[in-house]
Design a protein that fits this description.
This protein is an alpha+beta fold. The protein is built from 6 helices and 11 strands. The strands form 2 sheets. Strands 4, 5, 6, 7, 8, 9, 10 and 11 form an 8-stranded mixed sheet that branches. Strand 1 and strand 2 (40-50) form a beta hairpin. The radius of gyration is 19 Å and the shape is elongated.
């Protein structure tokens, strides 16, 4: 079983703290969840540290590490209508069903692009080559919530041209690993966007449309 202090995501987080000038006195492990191989998935810790200005930093951190999120746009090759391939599952935030882009954690053996390829396959059953993925925001590390977590995201998108029958056949697949209970769902872009309540997914939708200069569709989305 992997110890927290040996986990790559813990070491990466601590190295960033120290590189930013924090004096780390003590880190208390409150709770850690591991996968079926004993590797750390995420951990709740209490941090005793001081900033370069001499102040105590808020102590609670939810360690999740680096993750990727991938927008998969399925384009009807005849009508050019755009659909989004979503994953539907229940989330602990409120217990309800969520509609999100495929996403997953980065481990210490794969690049963000390689993880994106893996997660698309594990969560949707689609095989997409790495060179078909386009990074958003120049592959920068983006933080959804800097106040309580180290989680940072790499965002990608890909476009696949298919016949309508092929697009619809991708919907309603049962997928997921490590106790995930996921169902794929294919929806027209606008409808998919309206169902999302995850700010990272909504941001990725808008960034994608800007990147491909689809201004007409962008104007139709609720902002």
């Amino acid at each position: 079983m992997e110890k927290l202090e040996n986990a790559p995501k813990f070491q990466l987080w601590k190295s960033h703290l120290q590189a930013s000038g924090l004096a780390v006195n003590h880190i208390e492990e409150v709770y850690t969840r591991r996968n079926h191989q004993g590797e750390v998935l995420f951990s709740l810790v209490l941090l005793d540290a001081r900033t370069p200005e001499g102040n105590k930093i808020p102590p609670i951190c939810f360690l999740k590490g680096e993750v990727v999120t991938v927008l998969v746009c399925l384009i009807d090759r005849h009508t050019r209508e755009k659909h989004l391939l979503l994953v539907r599952q229940r989330r602990i935030a409120e217990g309800g069903l969520t509609y999100e882009h495929p996403a997953g954690m980065i481990d210490n053996t794969q690049t963000p692009q390689e993880v994106a390829v893996r997660e698309i396959f594990e969560e949707t059953g689609l095989s997409v080559a790495g060179d078909r993925l386009t990074p958003v925001f120049h592959d920068r590390r983006l933080f959804p919530s800097t106040g309580t977590s180290d989680e940072c995201m790499y965002l990608f998108f890909t476009e696949l041209e298919l016949d309508r029958e092929e697009i619809m056949a991708i919907s309603n697949r049962e997928t997921g690993v490590d106790d995930e209970h996921i169902t794929t769902l294919v929806l027209p872009f606008e409808e998919a966007h309206r169902r999302m309540n995850n700010t990272n997914c909504i941001l990725l939708n808008l960034a994608y449309l800007q990147a491909v200069e689809d201004w007409e569709l962008l104007k139709k989305l609720p902002l």
